Amino acid sequence: MNKRLFLFFRILLTFLILGIIFYKIDIRKFISIYKNINLIYLLLAIFFYYLAFVFLSLRWKILLIGHSKDFKLSEIFKVYLLGMLVNTISPATLGVDILRGYMISTKIESGKSFAFASVLVDRLMGLFGIFSFVPFSVLVLKGLPNPGRIILLFIFFAFFIILIFYISWTPGFEILFKRAVSPLSFLKLNERLMKFYDSYKIYSDHKKLLISGYFLTLLLQATFSIQAYFCAKALSLNLSPFVFIFLIPLINSLNFVPVTISGLGVREAGFYALFSSYFTPESSVSISLLYFISGVIANLPFGVYLFKSPFKNEKKD
């Protein structure tokens, strides 16, 4: 019941935000922007979307540590894009993470415990990369509302991620976690959770890999920004790519809590607010939707992996 209620809330909020945005803009002007889309620039936007997921796949491959050799980069890339497709067509909030964790677990000996631990660390690294970059973006760009508060908020978020890593790797936390899960003997849930924690704790001995993952996060955020830049170019809207590089991570950070379906509405509100100094509201929203649509177009070919395995070799016994 709670899941259905939350889903209803997310759908309602998606339409509510989009409704407010489209109420505030001139629909005719908005539609006219799409009349002469430059397909070359749109293809370039899709190319940079793929490139961003190459960096994402490389980050995850690095975080698979000893299992990294079991996967080709192309296989992880396929799993990621399939997850993105499922996340687009499904109302599930964690479609990408659940699907990629499950699919990776089918090919490694340690199974679900390590697979989902790698997904968790990969997700935390992504959040830390965005949260730590946003304060720098706010310092560089001018005209943002309440810049001081934004900087402090995201510095707090970034340090909170570091704190999660630090505390969760301490012996004291391990003892408390073991005590907390020990009563959960049903279906051996306590054993499963301890295996997951043990897999997660492995990363405390691989901090250099986490640093590599952090720099890849910065690189892929820049790549997503160039994707948005070419979406603007496709609509004959011109602005320095550096503005996109500093603004897009801030907009992407708005979706770290999945309160709407596929980030719709929240992303458009971000473009509407942050690009208002550079474009008309109609132009800002049009870039946002094309940014989303270009990703959807890029994800579609990977639907084939709903019917066949993205891996060349199955899990060894």
| Unreliable spans | none
Q: Name the structural class.
A: mainly alpha
Mean pLDDT: 87
What percentage of the residues does DSSP assign to strands (E)?
under 5%
End-to-end separation: 40 Å
Count of alpha and pi helical runs: 13
Shape: globular
Query: Total domains, how many?
Result: 1
Helix percent band: over 70%
Number of strands: 0
Work out the radius of gyration: 21 Å
From N to C, what is the helix and strand string?
A: HHHHHHHHHHHHH
Describe the main β-sheet briefly.
none
Characterization of this structure:
The chain has about 325 residues and is mainly alpha-helical. The protein has one domain (about 25-305). The protein is about 70% helix and about 0% strand. It contains 13 helices and no strands. The protein has helices spanning about 1-25, 25-35, 40-65, 75-90, 95-105, 110-140, 145-170, 170-180, 190-200, 205-235, 240-255, 265-275, 280-300. Helix 6 crosses helix 10 (about 205-235). The longest helix is centred in the middle third of the chain and has 30 residues, at about 110-140. It is globular.
Question: What's the short version?
Answer:
With 317 residues, the chain is mainly alpha-helical. It is built from 13 helices and no strands.
